[in-house]
Automatic annotation (TrEMBL), chains A, B:
<keyword id="KW-0949">S-adenosyl-L-methionine</keyword>
<dbReference type="Pfam" id="PF01964">
    <property type="entry name" value="ThiC_Rad_SAM"/>
</dbReference>
<dbReference type="InterPro" id="IPR038521">
    <property type="entry name" value="ThiC/Bza_core_dom"/>
</dbReference>
<keyword id="KW-0408">Iron</keyword>
<keyword id="KW-0862">Zinc</keyword>
<keyword id="KW-0004">4Fe-4S</keyword>
<keyword id="KW-0479">Metal-binding</keyword>
<dbReference type="GO" id="GO:0051539">
    <property type="term" value="F:4 iron, 4 sulfur cluster binding"/>
</dbReference>
<keyword id="KW-0411">Iron-sulfur</keyword>
<protein>
    <recommendedName>
        <fullName>Phosphomethylpyrimidine synthase</fullName>
        <ecNumber>4.1.99.17</ecNumber>
    </recommendedName>
</protein>
<dbReference type="GO" id="GO:0009228">
    <property type="term" value="P:thiamine biosynthetic process"/>
</dbReference>
<dbReference type="InterPro" id="IPR002817">
    <property type="entry name" value="ThiC/BzaA/B"/>
</dbReference>
<dbReference type="GO" id="GO:0070284">
    <property type="term" value="F:phosphomethylpyrimidine synthase activity"/>
</dbReference>
<keyword id="KW-0456">Lyase</keyword>
<dbReference type="GO" id="GO:0046872">
    <property type="term" value="F:metal ion binding"/>
</dbReference>
């Protein structure tokens, strides 16, 4: 991997000491993980000041926050504030999913103002140009698409969602009458399915995969192999269309790896609880244990407004089963574009899920944190509790009315911790 | 059971038709569950207008909301508003955990104004009287304690947490140097442990258990056998002290059942994810499959401010493993007494957990709900989505800025659902 990917080597060399420290892993473990393709190191040398970020257990589970404009909510300033919020809340990466406004400008601003690895979905920029001219969103040519990918790689984008494993067969299976409740719910997937239908041709990202690898290799762009056919309803989870794409993603991850390009796999999506374990372990097995990046999983469809909670339930179980990277869901999911506080709450909910999963896995730092906050609780040491909490500011704020009291206001003099120590 | 407990029989007879309908269960299934002690029917005939409520899978998982005054936040009006909020949010039962003010008055107001089954912890009223006089909270006599239990039963309290299974041995194990990080965190448990220490005697609720059963039988008060030694830190989960009490609770549930008194078991508490399944299944097995009522479980200690989320993660997994009754955790847990919106958010988070668990278990109504909301999503039928959502008002409110648009503001013209249907 390192011998083929010089850009990766330079990022690795500049960050390995810091990585060993922050991840609590040996240099050998990290090298082996990257060589095996079970870890990826996000970082495009063109992204100045990027914090190289390691994804793949036993490295710590990472959180991604999706931000970006939409046609109904196109406020560039606000998206920059969301970027700042995601960063401060503790996200480890951000994806710019903008589909309205000056996409190049927004992307460049984000790259310039934030050290978190930035991901994009280049096909959105394609479709947006056509939509803006009131043309077919799938009207773009293959050359246009690759020009966009190359431009974004040169701008410094660290990882890109590209739905290379979506085949015509998969798209047909997903949209056949009587099959899925919800067909294709991935925006990128639906644009590509439309492209294949309109052009009567196979997926251009699949047929021109080596062209993509060449661009990615040059700039150490990590491929985030997109799940265009992820289930959009619990009822659709685990069907043939989903697995057809997973199998392709595994083959493509292997080919990327052989080429010297880092790749991770994107996963579901809407999955009921009894299927999360088999989905995660099944996808991992079929994709050569490449890092797995999931959206949720969302373990019920009935919680709009609380999808960050339903997603945290699925996410924590997913982490226990080997997931490496959690894409947040915010309270706005399925309803509207997230506001600033949705971004904060989405990141925090994902951090809670990761912490719960890592404690369950016995990861040293997570277990130690739980232990130390419990000791602080015994000592009623509120400053230390806040310091160790996933949201220190919130923990302080909730106690503001009685911050001079030793006990908390739930129990007051009935504090069980004190009842026996008096 | 029915032949011994006349109060239960009267509640059963008045509600069985409605119960069969709301639970989707046959009369025979419900009778068998109650006879076997795997279901309990909450409802004290002295609680006028109570909605008899069935607890025990395959009956639907129920949610309890804890409310009540505390010494630092003693606002009777606000607690009545919380009661109303819990009810409107969809709680199935409420516990009045008041420890400040006119406890008899608060309890009577709550019983008069709400048809949800009401639970209490009678030992709080005992301790509160002594604390109010600046005396030892464990100064009360056995007769005083039973007089309180009898009075509350006559007032109409439907279920009572009584820590009958807490033994001197268990309390010693939990508080021994070098054992637990957090000793005893149950308020009732710590009061009783103090009583045992101060009086140099065994737990009066254990030594006088038949006296308790006699009162409960008369009014169909369901015993909620309290877990005074539940772990208060993930690190403490599953230790000898916890299991010593669980074993006693099982024996006591059996004795209650033989006496004609309904009983459920209270469970943890702080439990890391890898232990939730073994805890829940282990407790069920050791307690003759009596209905299990858990607080969380809270699968990390590090999320103060987000304990409703950490609790929903544990709760959903617990439901998948057989838990019957979830006590909510609010965003205020471990920090302060919940405010009105905390009550709302706590109930909703628990409802999300129950829905996720029930979908995972394949429960017909939960699966159907997920399916119908997914169909509504495909049709972009926002009214129907809101109608089926766990929080219809919230789902509507989040769309208010663009309620005349067909698509949601996340994707707008990029709506994947529409991309292929055009």
């Amino acid at each position: 991997m390192f011998s083929k990917n010089k850009a990766l080597k330079s990022i690795f060399d500049s960050s390995i000491d810091e990585l060993c420290k922050s991840e609590g892993l040996s240099k050998e473990t990290i090298i082996q993980g990257i060589e095996d393709g079970t870890m990826v190191l996000l970082g495009n040398p063109n992204h100045k000041n990027v914090t190289p970020t390691l994804i793949g257990q036993p490295a710590k589970v990472k959180i991604n926050a999706n931000i970006g404009t939409s046609p109904f909510k196109n406020d560039r300033e606000k998206e920059m504030k969301k970027l700042d919020t995601a960063w401060k809340a503790g996200a480890h990466a951000v994806m710019d999913l903008s589909t309205a406004g000056d996409l190049d400008g927004i992307r460049t601003d984000m790259l310039n103002s934030c050290p978190l690895p930035l991901g994009t979905v280049p096909i959105y920029a394609m479709a947006q140009q056509y939509v803006a001219r009131d043309e077919d969103p799938a009207g773009f040519s293959i050359d246009e698409l690759f020009a966009e990918v190359e431009k974004e790689a040169e701008q410094g984008v660290d990882f890109m969602t590209l739905h290379c494993g979506l085949t015509r067969r998969g798209a047909e299976w997903a949209t056949e009458e009587g099959e899925r409740l919800l067909g294709i719910v991935s925006r990128g997937g639906s644009i590509l399915a439309r492209w294949m239908r309109d052009h009567d041709a196979e997926n251009p990202l699949l047929t021109n995969y080596d062209r993509l690898l060449e661009i990615c290799l040059k700039h150490n762009v990590t491929l985030s192999l997109g799940d265009g056919l992820r289930p959009g309803a619990g009822e659709d989870a685990g069907d043939a269309a989903q697995w057809e794409e997973v199998l392709m993603l595994g083959k493509l991850a292997k080919r990327a790896h052989e080429y010297g390009v880092q790749a991770m796999i994107e996963g579901p999506g809407h999955v009921p609880m009894h299927l999360v374990e088999s989905q995660i372990r099944g996808i991992k097995a079929a994709t050569y244990n490449a890092p797995l990046y999931v959206l949720g999983p969302l373990v019920t469809d009935s919680a709009p407004g609380y999808d960050h909670i339903a997603g945290a339930i699925g996410g924590a179980i997913a982490v226990m089963n080997g997931v490496d990277f959690l894409c947040y869901l915010t309270p706005a999911e399925h309803l509207t574009l997230p506001e600033i506080d949705d971004v904060w709450n989405g990141v925090k909910a994902s951090l809670v899920a990761a912490q719960c999963g890592e404690v369950g896995l016995g990861r040293k730092d997570a277990v130690q944190r739980d232990k130390e906050i419990s000791i602080a609780r015994k000592e009623l040491d509120w400053d230390r509790i806040a310091e160790l909490a996933i949201d220190p500011a919130l923990a302080c704020a909730r106690r503001k009315d009685h911050k001079d009291e030793k006990e908390c206001a739930m129990c007051g003099k009935f504090c069980a911790v004190r009842m026996l120590s008096e």
